[in-house]
């Protein structure tokens, strides 16, 4: 079967609230859907959702790049298996547009499975598996963050991730103390994400203070690119460190090996849209496992189209620990989907239909 037509649809997602990070506040996010057709039938659907200010994708060139991809896809024979789809996506795309590569991979895999939003044939897609996720608490003033924490606990989350680094550190410590005064580490797992907010000369002291609260891990305590400082920090830290932004723009297998073998982090965070898609994610996992480094998957604020693909990838990889896949409820105008969150888990409820693009 040939791909007779490929089409791009742009969509601007609108946050339900001002989503604060140490890099600034988000109110909307642009995303692009890659649609593959055979005649009038929709064969496959993928999402390219770069995050401005974080992704290396030049957002102002996304339309041009995706139109180029559409021209290359039209008229070609649909791959028959995953390895062929991955190889084709690599051939057509550029390392400068990692989110585009992810969109091509997932659109092709969806097409291989019949155009039913099925990227991998897993227990998750078949509604048999629930994936544990962390409840995400965004930065804001103390009252806003405390409100989110209370909501996440009431919703049954047993793993909570709190973004820190934007408000007063003492206030953030107060919030963590309030959680630990009610729930110990066996009851609630706490993750924190600094998004590179700490300075290298203050990071170890702050990590020591945070360690009093039985923190599971801290993501990217200092800004990416400070390799020697991060290596030293990972060696001395009282809290396991997870690399996140540090992985951006590291493309070749040898570059990935060198980074992990040099820094020796305790964890890495894998966002397929950010690091170059499925194949790149599988490479990072292989290298991490060789170096006894643990990992988990996180969405990058995609709509439910991209989130669905990452959930299915998580199921394909047989994940056990809580993943960062609870972002589908952030937007006023997300695409309606079977993705459902309850009691700190996400699952695919086939009784719910997909909305239209």
List keywords for this structure.
7-stranded parallel β-sheet, 22% strand, single chain, 357 residues, alpha/beta
What features would you describe in this structure?
By secondary structure, this protein is an alpha/beta fold. Helix content is 35%, strand content 22%. It has helices at 62-73, 82-92, 98-112, 142-154, 169-180, 200-210, 227-236, 253-263, 272-275, 277-290, 304-316, and strands spanning 5-21, 24-38, 41-48, 131-132, 135-137, 159-163, 189-193, 215-219, 241-243, 267-270, 294-297, 339-342, 345-348. The strands form three sheets. A seven-stranded parallel β-sheet has the order 5-6-7-8-9-10-11. A three-stranded antiparallel β-sheet has the order 1-2-3. A three-stranded antiparallel β-sheet has the order 4-13-12. Strand 5, helix 4 (142-154) and strand 6 form a beta-alpha-beta unit. The model has no long low-confidence stretch (mean pLDDT 94).
What's the total number of strands? 13
Quaternary status: single chain
Poorly predicted runs of 5 or more residues: none
What's the shape? globular
- The whole-number mean of residue pLDDT values reads 94
Content of β-strand:
15-25%
- Numbering strands along the chain, what is their spatial order in the largest sheet? 5-6-7-8-9-10-11
Straight-line distance between termini: 24 Å
Number of helices: 11
- List the helices and strands in order: EEEHHHEEHEHEHEHEHEHHEHEE
Helix content: 25-40%
Instruction: State the major sheet.
Output: 7 strands, parallel
Instruction: Give me the secondary-structure category.
Output: alpha/beta
